[in-house]
Amino acid sequence: MVACHAMGLGGKRERVVVVGAGIGGLACAIQLAAEGVEVVVLEQAASCGGKMHATTVGGRSIDSGPTVLTLRYIFDALFEAAGANLDEAVRLTPASVLARYAWDETQWLDFHADVEQSAEAIGEFAGAAAAAGYLAFCAESRRVWETLRRPYLEAQQTNVAGLTWRVGLMRPTALMAIRPFETLWRALGRHFPDPRLRQLFARYSTYCGASPFQAPATLMLIAHAEREGVWLVEGGMQRLAQAMEALALRLGVVVRYGARVERIAVERGRAAAVVLAGGERIDASAVVVNADPGAISGGLFGAAVRGATPAPPPAGRSLSAFTLALTGAAKGPALERHTVLFSADYPGEFADLAAGTMPRDPTVYICAQDRPGASAGPERLFMLINAPANGDDGEWPKEAKDECERAIERRLAACGLQVTPLEGPAIATPADFARRFPATGGALYGPAMHGWAAAFRRPGSRTRIPGLYLTGGGAHPGAGVPMAALSGRLAAQALMADRVSTPRSRPAATPGGMSMRSAPTESAASP
């Protein structure tokens, strides 16, 4: 195949530098390379994936970031655009049980991929009226999803007027129907008088690091996204990032690890190059930053680009987490792949978080990564509780970590569970996440989705500096694996639309990229 590469002024070949090999950065690199653009990805860590990472405990790899894949159509489209097939790159299995929920040792509920099966289970758990409420909730969350999917989630960032134009003029009542001025918690009360079910569906706000008591009811669309299908990635979630890296390399992308970007150079009013910590300069026709926007406004990429994005206030951060990764034996009621043990005081849990303290009675998420079909031997377990994003306040003392472990043990015991570690646990705190993702305080989901205007305050692909673009969970359309990938595609689309000139012929990528690795370092640019 003869490749015709995208050309700039004077026939000079374009080179785009992507800073960060997280999901957003890899998706952007793939999209650009498929258009024939020369792409160099610079990653400070020793591997790709960003927040999609694994922890090794007892010689076994345990997913310690995202643990579930939804909206696979976004990845199908990305691979197809690059002439590849997702199913040939990774093995995906649809989950039949989406999650198992518990409130105490007698109250357990399975939530199924099949809506009718879930309605039946809810009816047995809480009565026929609750089952009817669930079906009504499904219909409403679908309407919210269908209203916002194309005009907002899959479009370049828009303001209120723009969204009104795209949606409201065609369907005047559609925007109000998504309940932007009502909290998720209040809206759920209309469908679920049973406080347990209200708590269950309120949990969807935490998928983007928000409190259900402050997040808009619009976030019920996350429930519909999950009903579109939950997929288990054979070998762990990092296999997906590795498959994306392999596709990028096949398209000719150069990926360099252990490459810390010290600053982004701005010349003649636009991003023109990146300078690495050792002084190496890499010229670029455009730069895409796959990092939290706060890293730019905080000056971590140099003074020249500091004003490219608004500085996010610490009070506007999303949640962080306290996590445990271990191998061991779980006794008591059987775990599912995804199990949630709910706090006995949900309002109190989020009041503690809002006050900047760890919850006294936290909700515990458990990912049992060897299930379904776990063997009789030790299994891999990942546990997470929500935490405030105050990791830049300093290291956590041992006493604080011990208290979090005790809080997790108390919640497990309340639900009739006991976990005996064989190896581990490997612990991560907001301070650890703050080190890995500077300028975030350990926030894992970008700006918090609190209030009706939060979605419009999140920065889009374009910044205030021409030639400088954003991708990742901190940018539009938001947090989560599929949204990060979508942000990468949106950044690539914006960049291509903004090019000064048009290629002379339809571009095609050059096969065979290069992956260069150096000594392992901490990641600062890969949400």
CATH top level label of the largest domain: Alpha Beta
Q: Give the biggest sheet.
A: 7 strands, mixed
Number of helices: 17
Low-confidence stretches: 1-12, 501-508, 519-527
CATH superfamily of the largest domain: FAD/NAD(P)-binding domain
The assigned CATH architecture of the largest domain is 3-Layer(bba) Sandwich
Number of beta strands = 21
Question: How large is the share of residues in beta strands?
Answer: 15-25%
Shape: globular
Helix content: 25-40%
C-alpha Rg, in Å? 23 Å
CATH topology of the largest domain: FAD/NAD(P)-binding domain
Strand order of the largest sheet: 8-7-16-17-18-15-19
How far the N terminus sits from the C terminus, by CA atoms, comes to 35 Å
| Overall pLDDT | 90
Describe this structure in words.
This protein is α/β, with parallel strands linked by helices. The protein folds into 3 domains: 11-90 and 236-314 and 447-516, FAD/NAD(P)-binding domain; 114-228, no CATH class; 316-436, no CATH class. Helix content is 33%, strand content 22%. The chain is built from 17 helices and 21 strands. The protein has helices at residues 23-34, 72-81, 86-89, 115-126, 128-153, 160-168, 174-177, 184-191, 195-202, 221-227, 238-250, 293-297, 346-354, 398-414, 430-436, 454-457, 481-497; strands at 15-19, 38-43, 54-57, 60-63, 69-70, 92-94, 97-104, 107-112, 230-233, 254-257, 261-267, 270-276, 281-283, 286-290, 320-331, 338-341, 364-368, 379-387, 418-428, 468-471, 514-516. The protein has a 7-stranded mixed β-sheet with strand order 8-7-16-17-18-15-19. Helix 1 (23-34) runs parallel beside helix 11, helix 2 (72-81) runs parallel beside helix 17 and helix 8 crosses helix 9. It starts with 14 loop residues before the first strand and ends in an 11-residue tail after the last strand.
